[in-house]
Amino acid sequence: MHRLWAKLVFLSLLPCVSVIGGDRVVVNSGDWPWWRGPTRNGVAEADQSPPLEWSEEKNVVWKVEVPGRGHASPTVVGDRIYLTVADDDREIQAVNCYDRSTGKELWQTIVHQGGFEFTGRQPNGKGSMASSTVACDGERLFINFLNHETVVTTALTIEGKLLWQRKITDYQLHQGYGSSPAIYGPLVIVSADNKGGGALVAMQRTTGKIVWKQERPEKPNYPSPIVLSVAGRDQLVLVGCELVSSFEPLTGKKLWETPGATTECVTSTVTDGELVVTSGGYPDNHISAVRADGSGEVVWRNNTRVYVPSMLVHEGHLYVVTDAGVAICYEMSTGNVLWKHRLGTTFTSSPVLVGELIFVTGDKGKTFIFHASPEKFELAAENDLAAEVIATPAICGSRIYMRAAQQIDGRMQELLYCLGEKNNK
Hints:
four-stranded antiparallel beta sheet; about 0% helix; Methylamine Dehydrogenase, Chain H; mainly beta; globular; about 425 residues; 1 helix
């Protein structure tokens, strides 16, 4: 039954899907309900028509100031947008809700106050105290925050009222924390790898009760847990800590585990249905393709540094944008390089596929739109907001929701943009 649910929930044309135990997940056409979108792989609905051109003066439907800082992506469900924020001055971590049509702030819920002090290291410059993306099942919001040297998962109603909170693990800060929750069946699943020994935990979405827990190695690591349909079944895949690990999502049973990753990974795993692809950046740079049937076979591997931006799979090909700004197309089955193209800026944000076009935004706000074609690199458009962009945009409902930051009156001001053709509702 859970496999049927997984297939149904990804069909976002359905207005509502009933799942195990009477729980519901509302996934409407045009929603972006969690990290990397409805299919968890950075692929938007193919029939969307987001703008191909924009600037501060063109195709900005609305723009609003966002208090504090954060690097989480927007979550878009129904007529609302949810965004995590952190205000270092006030020492608050919060979830903000905005009207999707106008950008008007509807509410803010403070989830934590204080707890910004850490022993030893300080967060990486590309980290923030609000880097985890909200996951929404249509009735509840789920979010992870690092606070008081622990990782805590919180559930809110879609009106911002606190439902429950659950401590996941103590956390030794190394670079930061940004793992986002995954929703599967009646569960919300979170990870918190760290040098003190982390945890992979599944909780009931309704109550926060822990259903299963897996202890993790004492190593720093940063990916989000991702549920993939691969090798004939649903698998919860987590990479890093020098391992590629697969679990049964509903029970937490370890299906298989194999060396195939470096210690520190950030990217979210992708698949073609047979292989899972992992990448990382410390101590080794690598991309590796691992057979997900439990054999542990590493089919191919290279030393390309794709540390932070996640990857895309499309029609038998793997598309990556390296941190240093090189777009590459690989043959998925062999790892053969089909083309490379230097984009000329650095990247933290992950690419998004819309139809046959890949959208990817650099750290300085320039977005490159190129064709998902193995034949050659072909640029379709290039746009610049002249802003810092660390978070991955959400592309849904023919609009682009982009989190950015600009220097305004001598200070960095976060902004949330809605980009779209004015005649596209």
